[in-house]
Amino acid sequence: MTFHHRWMLLAALATALTAALGCHQAPSTEATTAPQSTAIRHVDPAAARQLLASSQVLVLDIRTPGEFARGHIAGATNIDFLAPSFAQRLGGLDRQREYLVHCATGGRSTKSLTVFTNLGFRSIAHLDGGFRAWEKAGEPVAK
């Protein structure tokens, strides 16, 4: 048997197996919708400032409450990434809004992008370098 014939046989078997398995599955009672992909863009402090000035973006500071109390971007909402209720609290937000997300240096907020994506958020701007980069750039800090 030539390589081509083996390949054709494997493809036919895979198709038959897929069809057979599909026939034995219970029909879904849930409406199917295509998953919405999350648009994620990475911004530096200057771009974040422009974004805050020119749009309806909401700031999510995912540092601990103690870090947040020492200083934060004005108008930011604090949702602690380390809290067990993090995903649940995000789930209560409007997924169609645009959010600017940051932590202290970018580590936790980078990890959080998967959570935002899994929850179906529409648009996330990630502040690269986090709050420390914001402060270092001389951007305003609220207390």
Q: Which runs of at least 5 residues are low in confidence (pLDDT < 50)?
A: 3-34
The helix/strand class is alpha/beta
Q: Major sheet: size, sense and barrel closure?
A: 5 strands, parallel
The CA-CA distance between the termini, in Å, is: 75 Å
Quick summary:
The protein is an alpha/beta fold and 143 residues long.
Please characterize this protein's 3D structure:
The chain has 143 residues and is of the alpha/beta class. The protein has a domain at 39-136: Oxidized Rhodanese, domain 1. It is 43% helix and 15% strand. The protein is built from six helices and five strands. It has helices at 3-23, 45-54, 65-70, 86-91, 107-118, 130-136, and strands spanning 39-43, 58-61, 77-78, 98-102, 123-127. The chain has a five-stranded parallel sheet. The longest helix is centred in the N-terminal third of the chain and has 21 residues, at 3-23. The radius of gyration is 22 Å and the shape is globular. Residues 3-34 have low confidence and may be disordered.
